[in-house]
Amino acid sequence: MDNFIALKNFSAEQINDLVELALKIKRSPADYQTALKGKYAGLLFEKPSLRTKTAFYVGSLQLGAQPVYYAPQEIKLGQREEVKDAARTFSKYLDVVVLRTSSHAILEEFSKFSSIPVVNALSDLLHPSQAIADILTIRELKKDIRKIKVAYAGDGNNVCNSLIYAFSILGGNLNLAIPARYKPRETVLKEALAKSASSGAHIEFVPSLKEAVCGADIIYTDVWTSMGKESERKIRKKYFKSFQINDTILKLAKNDVAVMHCLPAHRGEEITDSVIDGDNSVVFLQAENRLHAAKAILFSLLKK
Q: How far are the Cα atoms of 32, 215, 235, 303 from residue 230, in angstroms, in the given order?
């Protein structure tokens, strides 16, 4: 890999290899503890982060690399510092940049002018490192993604977009329960449809949450109001009120259904306490796997 920006740029083989590498690193972390010794990873985060920052920071250290963290007020890409100037400067000091930004356009411009690998640690359009951790979690729990039914309930946001790309490439079955006005971008859906034609993926919008989760092996949900959309929270709660994952909804899925959430959760909105803390929840295994996914991404980019 030259960069890790969008899953749509990778083949099924590349994604599967990355997930398998994450599994190997998870099972035998000591084998990789000096793999990136002498490397420096810049973590430039313009938005808040718990799991992504920790995963790439600690992941760098556990691979033997040295992380350098930059807070939002330090750089201010496009304001205090031109994006292309920052990219060129970082390229002189570091070996990889992990960038979390509000604008996917900034991410693309940064990678254009960077001579070192760039990792998308979240943009307004995509969250691919989250999706790799999710596929890793599904692989551990349910084995073959092509033989299970996954229901996603929530906003058509960056996490949803990356899941759609992942499933369309890998040939998975994904039911989407999303209010019509909050569906993913049309460009994402068109690209996923084209990829599904060759992979055999089945990605479908289902009008009701109950229909989407019926017989599901996995239920995945996310917040109704993502970062940057806080002013819409009141109106979004109105449109999403029938999309909550609760005990009643859980009974419609398979008995051993796994419940996933990328976190942070707005408990009492998209998911109830009884579900996220219940026996079917794998939310914190999923959170743990962010670390192993991050390590696999860094290793693949830097260990030539």
A: 40, 33, 10, 40
Domains defined along the chain, listed by start: 7-126+290-302 (3.40.50.1370), 130-286 (3.40.50.1370)
Q: Is 64 helix (H, G, I), strand (E, B) or coil?
A: coil
Q: Residues 27-47: pLDDT tens digits? A: 999 999 999 999 999 999 999
Closest CA to 36 of 67, 4, 5, 70: 67
HSE-CB at 11 with a 13 A cutoff on CA atoms is: 4
Closest C-alpha among 168, 65, 88, 121 to residue 294: 121
Given a cut of 70, is residue 304 above it in pLDDT? no
* Cα gap 153→178, rounded to integer Å: 6
- Is 0.70 topped by the overall pTM? yes
